[in-house]
Amino acid sequence: MSTRTLVIIALLLVGAAAPAVAADPRYPDWPCAQAKVPEISLAAVWAGPSLDDVKDKWKADDKVDSLVARLAARRTSMEDAEKLITEFLSNSKDKAQNGKMLFAGLFESLNAQRNSVMNGLERVTRKQRAAADKVRADTLALHELQDSPTPDATKVEQLSNQLTWETRIFEDRNKVIRFACEVPTIIDQRLFALGRTIQQEME
Q: Cα–Cα–Cα angle for 190, 194, 196, nearest 5°?
């Protein structure tokens, strides 16, 4: 690939893939097409009894605490998670209390997990913004080197290689962002589905 072609590709890539201006001015670093919802609403995922009396109790119950960790982990399939819930609550003396504690733990844990993912997305977006500026600057510098009366072939090659590497990293990060943008929705869906299973077992 010629260095002039690389210059054109770098400019097009950064222009097309740089994080867009946020639709919501409250969250200028939010890169996803989906609107940013900082926290899951309890009412959107739980139609069971009030959790007010168990919010601070679930961590003190070793069985509930351990199960919450397994259920919140995305490596635990939904099928396995539902089986674990059914097994736990079917053997509970107080299904209502244990079911509430279990969901209170899931709600807190998955909200924290979701928040961590969203913070990570915004950190990467800030890095991408800085990376886009660097690619533009290096592209212009390469262009100037090429257009000089006596271009230094060694410097042109070095900067060309650097620009190739920078654009590759930039595009790889964009792929990560596109994938990670789906994760908060996946967490929402997981919490809703597990909450429904808990409610069914409590009835």
A: 120
